[in-house]
Amino acid sequence: MNTRTLAIILGASLAVSVAVNLFAATAAYTVLNGRDPAEPPRQEKADYRGRMTPRQILADLDPATRESVREALKSASLRARPDFQQARQARRDAVTAAAAEPWDPARVAALLEASRLAEARGRQTIETEALTLLGTLEPTDRAVVAQMLNARSGGARDAGRDRSPAPR
User: Fold this and answer.
1) Is the pTM of this model over 0.70?
2) Residues 16-47: pLDDT tens digits?
3) Which residue among 2, 38, 130, 153 has the highest number of C-beta atoms inside a 10 angstrom radius?
């Protein structure tokens, strides 16, 4: 066998060996870091904080009740939307004011306070509507929907959320 043929064969063998080893390493990594096979596949992910999403919470309700609850929460979030938009805008303005010259700490503090108050008004609107809604439900359904009160934010609020990106 001449030298050139031997070089081609060794080069091809090396390429095949690298490919097989890469495949084996990827398979091993996937097996070691993948989902536990005993764990059932999740239909929906929890939100990034590890809590159940509103859709997961409401999944246990009967379809007619679930739809009326969704409509009531959507209505509440739409009523609270202006307050949440005002809170986000005040927070963006505070960030801009904090980076501006001359530095005006009183203005930044006032904008942050305005943001907190607007968010509190929005949350109060949603929570008041949620209490009214809970009063209309059967005890078993009320126990399911009441889980949504545990969330700090999100849930019903996100239905009316302004998804425009914040200026950078």
Assistant:
1) no
2) 998 888 888 888 888 777 755 565 555 544 44
3) 130
- Identify which of 133, 121, 9, 115 has the alpha carbon closest to the alpha carbon of residue 66: 133
Please give the structure tokens belonging to residue 38.
């005993």
Crossing angle, helix 139-146 and helix 105-134, to 10 degrees? Answer: 160
Q: What DSSP letter does each residue of the chain carry, written as one string?
A: --HHHHHHHHHHHHHHHHHHHHHHHHHHHHHHHS--TTSPPPSS---TTSPPPHHHHHTTS-HHHHHHHHHHHHHHHHHHHHHHHHHHHHHHHHHHHHHSSS--HHHHHHHHHHHHHHHHHHHHHHHHHHHHHHTTS-HHHHHHHHGGGG-SS-THHHHT---PPPP-
Burial class (CB in 10 A: 0-12, 13-18, 19+), 95: middle
Residues 115/97, Cβ–Cβ less than 8 Å: no
